[in-house]
Specification:
Helix content is about 25%, strand content about 25%. The chain is built from 17 helices and 24 strands. The strands form 6 sheets. Strands 16-17-18-22-21-20-19 form a 7-stranded antiparallel sheet, sandwiched between helices. The longest helix is centred in the middle third of the chain and has 23 residues. The protein is globular and about 85 Å long. The N terminus and C terminus are likely disordered.
Length: about 675
Amino acid sequence: MNSRYRFSQLLQSIVFGTLLSTVGFGDEFAALDGNQDGVLSGKELGGLKILDADGDGELQRSEFVAAIRSQKKRSSTSPQTLFKDRDTNEDGRLSGKEKVGLEKYDANSDGRITEDEWRSGFTSADPELQGKTLKEIEKIAAVRFKELDVTEDGRLTGNEASGVKSFDQNGDGRVLQEELAVGMLLSISEEGDSEASPSPNGSVAEIVADIVAAMNDPDKVDLAYSHMHDKMKEVTDPFLLKYVCTYASKTHKNFQLSKANIKEVKLESGALDVSAKLKCGKGDLTLSVTLLKGQVVALALDSPEMNEIDQALFNDLQDEDLQLEFCRAYQPKIRQALDFILNGDDGKALALVHPSVIEQIGEIPFINLFARVRSQINKVDKFELEAFSRDEGQPGVYTYTVTFLATDGKEAIRFSGVLQRDGLHSTLTGYTVERALDIAPPAPVMDDDVQPPPAPAPVMDDEVAPPPAPVVDDDSLPQPAPVVNDDDDVPLPPAPAPNVDDGWHKTVSIRDGVQFEMPEEAKRVLLNTDKRKSIQYTLASSQRRMTFTLDISATETDLTSEHEVFFDTFKNALLNDSGRELLKEDREPQAQFPNQLLLMKNPDGSFMALRTIIAGKNIYRGTWLGKSIDEETRVPAQRFLESIVMIDAGGAPRTGSLPATELPPPPTGTTPAPVVDPIPNE
């Protein structure tokens, strides 16, 4: 287990479908049909009421498909005709009022839209709408409608409607905001395919047979890959597909396919669900395939052995040859990320990371890392594989880090991509960077007969001290966050605390043997009651809606060997008759200083996270209280709890044991509080 606790481990979880990869193809109807009853009604119908042709309060799939076809037919109007409608002064370009609301078509940003620019923009797909829900599209439509509605009368008519006339759902010559939103949804929707087979590459039986052939002989994996839809290929890595086939062949032996065992079920969307029971050395395995337009859009293998695929991959990646194959498979993706970063395309580098990671921790940690990369290297002349590591942060959670040495002839960095299996491909969950100080660029080739001239001695002014050597920070940034999916409760690898210079105070107390960070300077107080004596550092932030406390107390005996009993007792004392709800618990018993981390919900709806550290006879407990758990509160809580570190007399993190003689003495009522200076982040 990672030696540092992460608050995010209590809040995040993941699910990886066993060899299941499924892709969506704009089936917006299915996405809107929340109860999957085949009709849209009630809240599902929402702004789509204008498509309810028969007025029965329900929208059938057939009505939705008919609306898509009508939308596409209306959209077939010549772009040239629409351009002429807008070009009122007939000067062959749109400018001034003519281009209001159409600025996105001005490709060269010269303030004018030519017919070529109009045609190119008009006929291209709208990337802003792809993958959006109806509610998200309605928000985009509201913004665009406001831009187009020059007269602010709540409807688009005349020149205002040029370019969006096809969205006039009822044909009354004007486009309302809700019509614009519905039209935008219909424009990216698919009708569905009523004939899912035969396939462009063969019948259903032939497709299944090719997949089974690849499972029996992984060298034939191209057969299975050739039947995949292009969008399926986008989420399928050939390396993982081949490994799946190899593992299936090794664990089951000799799959046998009988056409009589192939079952087909037609879906309303027009797709075809196909399942086949395969006889093999292990009994049975079920192969499930979904076909759309005769191509594979989903693939799953179901058997007890296949459920162990993650552990098998983790174990098999001990083999150096397989490691090398893995690294080569994902080198292009990691190199692409580095190129994006060096070119300043931070958005593209972020897009390569699973979106739930960004949602979990925000963009700031990544933006800081990208800036750090650019401060250490300007370009990449060489990009060479240096290291591969695998980690099981917690049981069943496997991540793989591939590290490359990137050099530009002068500087060198170690740049890593952290990956985690997600169905039939591995997704990036983050990056790390470290300056490679031990790597020097090669010396230039010299002619043996020609000696290089000696370097001139620096001219020194006796009255002026030479400038100090630059300080080089070569600590790598924290490990990135994992992919998140709330459908499972398997904990994920740790998420990083933001590395930003935001005024946080680092407090170092030699006497108390600890250092930590809080958003502002904490007050140190000495508590001395009949029941308990302790030292507390406390910060109550009304603006942040949070309270941070670090409590230090001493016991008469060393609790290291009894930490499990102590942790159980402490947890039970918090829960018994308190009305609190334990959301999650995590422990690190094998650490140098045993840890316990608890997340609880209080009766009043607030949340409490506690990290307890046993250091010999001393107990260090960090407590965070917050009104809610969201991005604004989670990140500071995580940063505070992770920052608590035991230090020695020199202020450095302890690497050895904590001798009893070095323990800070138990607090007493007469002990003066030492001076503790906050150290701002460098």
